[in-house]
Amino acid sequence: MAVTDNTSTGESPIDRAFRVLQFIVAADTPVGIRELGRRTGLPRSTVGRLIGTLTDLGMVARTSDGSVIPGSALVTLQPKNNTEAMLGDQLRPLLAELAQTFGESAALSVDDGEALLYLSQVLTEHAVSVPAVTGDRHEFHLVAPGLVTMAWWDSERLVRALDSELEPATDHSMTSPSALKKRLKVVAADGYCWTDQELDIGVNGLAVPLVRNDELVATISLFGPAYRLNPEARPSLADDLRELVDERARALLPSPPR
Asked: Do 122 and 28 meet the contact criterion of CB atoms below 8 Å apart?
């Protein structure tokens, strides 16, 4: 009798690979081979072989500790006009690397015209005191990536925004138009922005711009407990984050059309 690669239930290798891929995409954090085996009910050896194939195809990627995250090739499965979903898929490996490298949760956000939209995030295992933000929209002046975004606005849009009434979220929120103008000049010059409990008490943020062809594509940010994530405790973090984002984004984003 011929030997097939199906399971006793008739599940094909493609079925198993798709099931493993679904678990990886649905996870908020990198997933280990052992955990994937537990969740899918497949032997670790089988999961390992499937991950090897999916890695070769670019559908998943491995972090430095061997965990698995969605890969940049997943963007090829998205509709071409779904730009935000494509960007989220392309840059999720970067978020996972940032979270692992710096030990803080990482997020990707974009300007949707009305507010700052968080497209994707990767939480660290010890992110118990910080919120999940994927899909959230916040006023630009309240969050680090929003302030980075404002620093790239033209003067007309900035004037309109600062002429409107800016509501605070905490006692730390900055709402003074003159103070914000000065702050945004510093952000533009530095290439990063720290926030100190301006949206949530006890939570700080650090954001840098993701620039392509001299245009702002998105913002990348870290967020975490204020006692741990602050410029006094980690004075080189902003420069380290900016350098890593600049380096990795060139490889993860597709080449511009010629």
From this structure: yes
* Residue numbers of the chain with a pLDDT score lower than 70: 1-10, 28, 72-86, 125-132, 134, 254-258
Domain ranges in the chain? 13-70, 80-252
CATH architecture label of 13-70 = Orthogonal Bundle (1.10)
**3 state DSSP class of 108:** strand
Q: What is the pLDDT of residues 83-125, one digit of tens each?
A: 666 677 778 888 888 998 999 999 999 998 889 999 888 887 6
- How many whole angstroms from its chain centre is CA 49? 28
What count of other Cβ atoms lies within 10 Å of the Cβ of residue 76?
A: 12
**Homologous superfamily, domain 80-252:** GAF domain (3.30.450.40)
The reported pTM is 0.69
